[in-house]
Design brief:
- This protein has 107 residues and is of the alpha/beta class.
- It has one domain (5-104): Glutaredoxin, CATH 3.40.30.10.
- It has helices at residues 9-17, 33-48, 64-69, 96-104, and strands at residues 5-7, 23-28, 54-59, 77-82, 85-91.
- It has a 5-stranded mixed beta sheet with strand order 1-3-2-4-5, with helices on both faces.
- Helix 2 links the parallel strand 2 and strand 3 (54-59).
- The longest helix is centred in the middle third of the chain and has 16 residues, at 33-48.
- It is globular.
- The two termini are 24 Å apart.
- 32% of the residues are buried.
Amino acid sequence: MSSVIEIADSQFEQEVEQADRPVLVYFWASWCGPCRLVSPSINSIADSYGDRLKVVKLEVDPSPESVAKCKVEGVPALRLFKDKQIVASHEGAIGKQQIQAMLDSNL
């Protein structure tokens, strides 16, 4: 069982902005091929970093407010929130090691 939490616009403030620990937001779309490649890495990150990090998954099409707020221009996209601020971001396909490096340098 993955510890990734699926959210929508209505839950963004509570799950991300009011979180008591860093949050990795994974923006994806069902029609996005590269998203299918990145998803297993996101699930693995959620399991291995679960003690230090909350991981949420947000589908872009039904959640335009969060997409605009985080300035997401393409998917897959990652935004790392810490203390209510975006401290790291990435757009496009990314490997698990690159995600780990991004997290390790910001957590």
